[in-house]
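Researcher: Quick sanity check before group meeting.
Model: Go ahead. Protein one:
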Amino acid sequence: MKKYLILLALALTGFVAKAENYVLKVTLQGSTSATYVLDARPIISYSGNDVIIKSQSLEDKYAINEVESFTFVDEAEMGVDNLTQNVTYQFHNNVFTCEGHDIRVFNISGQQVAAGNNSVSLESLEHGIYIVSTGKRAIKVMKN
């Protein structure tokens, strides 16, 4: 039942996102949230007990029992207070940003190929798929 309610909420709120970037806020159990700033509308799907968030350049997943809701947010509503209370992931123009976090980038073989604090440029890396680690999260990113 929870899957269907989330899908319905996505269908209704997905049409609201009109900004150049799409801002998707994932509210998790325990009043925490993650915010994704994406340059393409994400696709939300389910596989087993996981919810998968996927866009042209990013893929992440959560256990379905962790997720309370998904919300598309207008970028203008994302003030400094909201950004400091949440974890915001952004991948735009080959730069991965997650303010206030150490970021490590690994190739598919598991070798660390880049690192930084707050942001890391993937510009010098070859086209391909990379794993970006920020704290306790690991996100798959596709560099075009």
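Researcher: Fine. The other one?
Model: Protein two, sequence then structure:
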Amino acid sequence: MSTLSLALYCEGPTDQRFFSILIQRISQQILARRERPFVEVLPVDVIKAKAPRHDEAILQAANQAAGYHALIVHADADHPTREKALQERFHPGYELVQRSRKKVCKNLLPVIPVYMTEAWMLADYKTLQAMLETRMSPQELGLPRRTKLIESDPDPKWTLNQLVKKAYPKQSRNWNKIVEKLYDELALFINLERLEALTAYKEFVKDMTQILMALNLIQRI
């Protein structure tokens, strides 16, 4: 059996917890859809790096990720599209890595939610309802009627916090703990088909598919 080893460099600890699990599931789904069940996707390892500049931090992460098949670099878009984050917080680091003569992981791909990671967490309201043990409708929870409109929310982190407060109005002391748990729970159980309504998610799946083709783990169409 072949294996796929991935590393992840993230902006924050909650992003790390969410994406390390989710990216493993996404990779497994892509392989399954291409009828490659004999490829084992190993748990995604989180890489930590610090540097004065973001591009240098990515180079550090790529150095630590030497030996992995690919390094995923996370950055929130904080913008209506992912293009600004790509140009400012991914491409400079990517180019630095490609020029490096050291042993580094040169297969880099971005994961850039619009506007933030929490937008992906809001995409599957049925799983959210189950996790929060609530019967409140998406509208009552403050979610848009159409999933793709979540990417129009400039502050999905605030929306997520408000949603928890609506679901548990009498547990103010536990709101933060409930939100913290959601990063792990949703990463495990969120419906990936629901995420396909989000442009940023589809872009990541496309990039991951390209990497898997370049690694000859799936065939080109």
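Researcher: One line on it for the slide.
Model: The longest helix spans residues 13-33.
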